[in-house]
Amino acid sequence: GHLDALLRGLVLGKLGKAGHKATLEEARRRFKEHVEGKHILSADLRSPVYVTVLKHGDSSTLDTMLKLHKQADMQEEKNRIERVLGAISQPELIQKVLTFALSEEVRPQDTVSVIGGVAGGSKQGRKAAWKFLRDNWEELYNRYQGGFLISRLIKV
Where does the ERAP1-like C-terminal domain start and stop, copy by copy (predicted)? Predict the structure, then answer.
């Protein structure tokens, strides 16, 4: 049922982030098949699989996610990817995600979700996102003209 699907995604996401070996192996297998077009992930499993492979991934994993983002033909999928990019854990890759947030690839209204995902992804991500916000304050403030998105960004 619907609630089981929601619970399954939540449990798998938590197990994957925690590094549960069997969950990580299965997520990597399913992600590979999804990317290759062999077996497309169902919508309810995409976020937990994406989070799991990113949390334990490398630059190649991030590049693949950014490629999926670029190729996505539905904004819903782009937003799903943008929200999970913050799961990446290597400091240089966190910076790459933050730079991506201000790129032309991300709609201005979605930049906040990318930065917020980084801030919520880890203690290291939170520190990096705060520094990024301070370093890019003028651009972000001008982009959002002091509206609700800038206050949401500060809150996250």
Answer: 2-155
What amino acid occupies position 6?
Answer: L
Q: Alpha-carbon distance 103 to 110, whole Å?
A: 11
Q: What's the pLDDT tens digit per position in 19-70?
A: 999 999 999 999 999 999 999 999 899 999 999 999 999 999 999 999 999 9
Transcribe 125-150 into DSSP letters. HHHHHHHHHHHTHHHHHHHHTTSHHH
Cα-based distances in Å from 90 to 73, 138, 144: 28, 27, 29
Residue 97 near residue 114, CB atoms below 8 Å: yes
Burial zone of 114 (CB within 10 Å; 0-12 exposed, 13-18 middle, 19+ buried): buried
For 58, the enclosing helix (H) or strand (E) is: none
Q: Which of 103, 122, 115 is nearest to 154 (CA)?
A: 115
What is the SS3 assignment for 88? Answer: coil
How confident is the model at residue 150, as a pLDDT?
82
Alpha carbons 27 and 36: distance in angstroms, whole number: 14
Neighbours of 53 (CB within 10 A): 26
* Length of the chain in terms of residues written: 156
